[in-house]
Amino acid sequence: MTTTTSRPGLRAYEDSLRLAPAEVVAALRETLGAKLVAYLGGVRETRAVREWADGTRIPADEVIQRLRAAYYVTAMLRDRESAPTVASWFQGMNPELDDVAPARMLREQDLDTAGPAVLAAARSFIALG
Question: Which domain of life is it from (predicted)?
């Protein structure tokens, strides 16, 4: 039996699928901050993020999928980087994404395209430092 620690990112992937939406949002908020989570979730107020994390409000299915993708990348990066570095990585222009910030790509582009691209950029960042 293979353990989740034998493959980098496997635990993050499994958690991104298994955690309840409120747990995903709470973990993202802890690492990225409420404003960035609100941006990723397509809402203007951090109150919605707090309500999502509390479980008193449920994000739309599409938003949950985007937040799960963001969680996967965040958890993978957090294995090696500090929370401020991860938050900066999400917001900064990324040369592997044609100088688009990963957060912007996840928010504005089709998730089937943006998700794998952002994930590949995160893996590259981890590998190259």
Answer: Bacteria
CA distance 123 to 85: 15
pTM for the full predicted model: 0.89
Identify the weakest region by mean pLDDT among 10-19, 74-83, 95-104.
10-19
Q: What is the Cα Rg of the chain in Å?
A: 14
- Are the beta carbons of 107 and 39 closer than 8 angstroms? yes
2 pLDDT band, cuts 50/70/90, is: very low
Tokens of 108: 């504005």
Task: Answer for the pair 71, 16: CB distance below 8 angstroms, yes or no.
Answer: yes
Q: Are 74 and 26 in contact (CB under 8 A)?
A: no
The answer to whether residues 101 and 91 touch, using CB atoms and an 8 Å cutoff, is yes
SS3 82: coil
